[in-house]
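REVIEWER CHECKLIST
Item 1: Sequence provided? yes
Item 2: Single chain? yes
Item 3: Sequence as submitted:
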Amino acid sequence: MERLSYTVLVATLPVLLSAQAYIKNASFEGKAQDATVPAGWFACEAGTTPDILPGPWGVYEEAAEGETYVGLITREDGTWESIGQRLSPTLKPKECYTFTLAVAHSQTYAGYNNPLRLRIWGGTARCGKDQMLLETGFIREPEWEEFEVQFVPKKPINYILVEAFYKDGNFSYRGNILIDDFSPIKKCVRAELME
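Item 4: Structure as written out by the authors:
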C-alpha cells in the first residue's frame, strides 16, 4: 500500500507542478541599487525606475524573504511606477488561481514617504490591464503584511503587472510601496471560487 501511494504521488507530481505559474525572481533579488528594474521583470509605465532595496534612498527595512525587495513610487508630477512579466503557462479562463505576496511601506523613502495602494493586474498582452487581481487599501506600516489573492480569469492571462497606486485620477502625490515574496500562482482548491 505504501509503495502504491508513493507511485501515485510520483505520477501526479508533474501534473500538480504544471498547474502552477512561477514568478521569475519572485522576491526581487539583486544588487541593492536605485533606478533598476529587477531581473526577470520589465518596466511598464513610462518613467518607471524601481529601486532594489534596502539601502538606496534611506530605506533600510529588512526583506520579507531573501536579501532584497522592490520599491515603487508615485510622484507629484502625476507619474507612477509599474513592472510586469510574462507568465508561463498561461492562466486559463474559468479556472481558480491563488498566490500570496508581501507588502510594506517605508516612512523614510527620500521624501516619497506617503502611503500608497498596490494594484495587481492580469493581461493578455505585455503591460496589459485586462483584469484587476488585487487592489489593497493604503499600506502605512513598515512591517510586512501578506496578502492572499484568489481570482478566476475572464480571459487567458499571459502577463502580470504590479503598480504603485494612489487613487483614480490623482497621482500627484509622493508615496512608496515595498513588494516582496511572490508565491507561485497555483490552482485553487476552494470550491467557492470555482463557479
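Item 5: Key structural point noted by reviewer: Residues 22-193 form a domain with the Jelly Rolls fold (CATH 2.60.120.260).
Item 6: Recommendation: ____
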